[in-house]
Design brief:
12 helices; alpha+beta
């Protein structure tokens, strides 16, 4: 069923049911990924040419087998000359015998003529000397044999019974039969007139047949392609990404498939991994494009030329340090996720040096934010007034998920101050506003699915620019907004790291890039994102 789904052979209604099932089944999603990778690999594979050495070996074996099956070997030129010499010698000897002894003519006539069927049964047969081997003249007695007297009993001659010859094996493309010349004809032909017959070999016949009926093999030509551009979208589960190359207005989007064998590296040659490549990274991809799938590349190598999460210092590049605050941070270290625990893992997997801390265990009277580049506040984070004042005075950019801190950080006001954690109606979508800001440029406007099941969505009334909203009490309230150098992303609950979709991480990555002063306009190309009618 999953194979038919990948090949597009299932009905529309069943396809929708499968996609709903795939949203919550990791095993089936892995099988779909495997089928898609196999399908693309088969389309891009090409037939390899047969080595010339193998071709020669096959023909040699065919000739050896045909030679062993032949039931008749044609005489060579030397053999034909030998036969002619024997016939000539026999003729001369017979002539001499006829002249010397007239009685020998009877012997000669019996030698060269078969016995008549009406001859008497007691007719004597001459005794002949055995014939010598081929090429040596046959010798006859110098004294003629005297016929036996009449009425002398003679033992009848019994013809030897020869064992029947085995039936010759059937020969493929047998040579045409050749009419052998008689001894007299051979004797009258000189050696210079003898031309051996030209017999077509099995190789020549087979080659002619193959040339007339060679199969036609159709393959999809492969093109070695190298593409440079900015990463516009990443699908971690399907191991695919979209790369926008070219200048604005003429850019082209490439769909890149990354197999387990794809080699990842950084600009300085150090090895890296697929998890270290994120949105807005500048990359160079080398791989193969098939004629049947224009714009799709099976990558063999990927090199990150410029990382979007690497801050460049004068002459030395260093990894940005991020302070991630969340209550019960020791559980994050043990792999137990809080509501936004997967934020810490996302930051670490995209190249940041992340320090996870419980705000209650930090001494805010000192300078705890020294050498940090970004402060990320997860949910829940209980901050004292001293902690809030220290963070604000540091002038570091802040990404906040806790709605209780919206007003203290000047992002806006809470919808329900008495119950600041009050959620909007249950759902798993947000509505992206028109792409008027750099942060949302390239994202599809309208409702976008950001979770695979119900997600906590706590709206606010923003003081700054609103990027996405949800409907709360019949009104649209901000769920993703920015004021100054602080961004509020009020959609959380990771469900142990398996709830958020790629569209959600797209929003998260863009928030981080914006706060670090990175240009997110490279993602202006079409970004495949989950919508109401199609989930990932």
């Amino acid at each position: 069923m999953l194979s038919s789904y990948v090949d597009g052979e299932v009905a529309v209604s069943l396809r929708h049911e499968l996609e709903v099932h795939l949203d919550g089944c990791n095993a089936c999603r892995d099988k779909v990924t495997s089928f898609r990778g196999l399908r693309l690999t088969l389309r891009q594979s090409a037939l390899k040419p047969v080595p010339q050495s193998l071709n020669r070996d096959v023909w040699r074996r065919i000739e050896e087998r045909e030679r062993s099956r032949r039931t008749f070997s044609f005489p060579s030129l030397g053999n034909l000359v030998g036969v002619a010499s024997n016939a000539f010698a026999i003729g001369v000897t017979a002539l001499l015998i006829a002249l010397i002894a007239p009685g020998a003519s009877a012997v000669w006539s019996q030698l060269i003529s078969p016995p008549s069927s009406d001859a008497p049964a007691d007719a004597a047969q001459p005794t002949l000397a055995p014939t010598s081997v081929r090429g040596t003249p046959t010798s006859f007695p110098t004294t003629p044999t005297v016929p036996p007297l009449a009425n002398t009993p003679v033992a009848p001659i019994v013809e030897p019974t020869l064992a029947p010859k085995p039936a010759p094996a059937q020969i493929i493309n047998p040579a045409p039969p050749v009419q052998l010349p008689s001894a007299t004809a051979i004797a009258s032909v000189s050696a210079s007139d003898v031309t051996p017959p030209v017999i077509p070999t099995s190789r020549a016949v087979a080659a002619s047949t193959y040339a007339n009926s060679s199969p036609t093999v159709t393959t999809q030509p492969l093109t070695l392609r190298t593409v440079s551009g900015s990463v516009a979208f990443v699908d971690r589960k399907q191991r695919t990404m979209s790369i926008a190359s070219g200048v604005a207005g003429t850019e082209k989007t490439w769909t890149v498939t990354l197999s387990e064998g794809t080699q990842f590296s950084r600009a300085d040659g150090r090895k890296t991994a697929f998890e270290d490549v994120g949105i807005a990274d500048q990359v160079e991809v080398a791989g193969f494009e098939t004629a049947g799938l224009p714009g799709a590349i099976m990558a063999s190598t990927l090199r990150v030329t410029v990382s979007a999460v690497t801050v460049a210092a004068p002459a030395v590049a260093r990894t940005p340090r991020v302070l991630f605050l969340v209550d019960g941070a020791e559980n994050i270290r043990n792999g137990q996720f809080a509501y936004t625990g997967d934020w810490a893992r996302r930051l670490a997997s995209t190249g940041f040096d992340v320090t996870t801390a419980d705000p209650a265990r930090i001494s805010w009277t000192t300078s705890p934010l020294k050498d940090f580049t970004l402060v990320v506040i997860g949910y829940p984070s209980t901050l004292t007034d001293n902690a809030i004042a220290t963070i604000r005075s540091s002038r570091l950019p802040v990404l906040d998920a806790d709605p209780r801190l919206v007003q203290p950080f000047g992002i806006g006001i809470n919808v329900d101050p008495a119950n600041p954690n009050r959620q909007a109606a249950p759902g798993k979508t947000v509505e992206v506003t028109a792409a008027t800001a750099t942060t949302t440029r390239g994202l599809p406007a309208g409702e976008v699915i950001v979770a695979r099941d119900t997600i906590y969505r706590t709206p606010i009334i923003s003081n700054g620019m609103v990027y996405a909203t949800v409907t709360d009490g019949g009104q649209k309230r901000a769920i993703w907004a920015q004021t100054g150098t602080t961004i509020y992303l009020g959609a959380w609950n990771s469900s142990n790291g398996a709830n958020h979709t790629d569209a959600y991480w797209n929003m998260f990555d863009r928030s981080v890039m914006t706060l670090l002063g990175r240009d997110t306009s490279a993602t202006a190309a079409s970004v495949p994102t989950a919508t109401r009618t199609g989930t990932r």
